[in-house]
Write a structure and sequence with these properties.
With 114 residues, this protein is of the alpha+beta class. The protein contains 3 helices and 6 strands.
């Protein structure tokens, strides 16, 4: 029997008085993001989409092995710049595709509390 880990749970909640996301440029935009590591047939992440505007916050919860760290590595640019993995879909931070910006530049725009 092959067991697959549960998908990570992503919850986004706006701060009070935040503008609706449809009216402003998202700070974080994920569109159909997938990540697959070398020598693995199945992707760790598949079809992850999220739009997060200024003043919004997100909590990522999930079981061990569900892809939480992989998701954060894709958002911060560690994947694909520091870790070898196939990144599919779109990951944008403040309008910049993470494939086009070094990790140090992205770190000025996004932070992770683990």
């Amino acid at each position: 029997m092959i067991m697959r880990p549960a998908e990570p749970f992503v919850s986004a909640e706006p701060f009070v008085n935040a503008e609706p996301i449809g009216q402003i440029e998202p700070v974080l935009h994920l569109d159909e993001v997938s990540v697959r590591f070398p020598r693995q047939r199945a992707p760790v992440l598949a079809g992850v989409s999220l739009r997060l505007g200024p003043g919004e916050r997100v909590i990522v919860l999930g079981a061990s092995g569900s892809g939480k760290s992989t998701l954060l590595q894709a958002i911060t640019g560690v994947i694909p710049h520091s870790l070898t993995a196939e990144l599919g879909g779109v990951v944008r931070v403040s309008g910049v595709d993470t494939r086009d910006a070094p990790v140090v530049e992205l770190s000025r725009q996004v932070g992770v509390l683990a």
